[in-house]
Amino acid sequence: MDIRRGSLYFDHLMTYSMIGKKEDWQEGFAVLEELELEQRVYKNGPVFFTFKSNEAGGEGEFTYYLPINEEVEMAGDSDIQYQEKVDVRDALLLRQADQYQDFNQAYDSIKTYASENGVDVEDSFYCVLLEVYDDIMLDLYVPVAGTGDSYGA
User: Fold this and answer.
1) Count helices and strands in the chain by DSSP H and E runs
2) Confidence of residue 57 (pLDDT cuts 50, 70, 90)
3) Other Cβ atoms closer than 10 A to 23
4) Superkingdom of the source (predicted)?
């Protein structure tokens, strides 16, 4: 397990938010896939999501992000929104988090590491899906609390 400090930055993002159970994390990606065709935008980076627990029944809020090539205008009543950037300046990073049974175990591992090393982290994470040779690898970023401006989740 190689946990280190890192940052996460993307600009020009399409976002989609939904309430759901952690185990249903893949559901929001279908919405983003359709978006590429409907809005004629071009993906220029890996898709990723964040999850914030509601403490009620294992559900929480997912926000999915699709990096695109330029700023777009969206209708105010649309489920899909444009976001200028996500900027997490300091986070604990676990590369290839798929070595664990699921990203929940990877997240717990980072939380344990943070506790053992006196690092205060937020109760949210970013899970970045990297496509490599027809396979998916996961990077998990857990923002360090109190490290300045952070835009996004």
Assistant:
1) 2, 7
2) low
3) 9
4) Bacteria
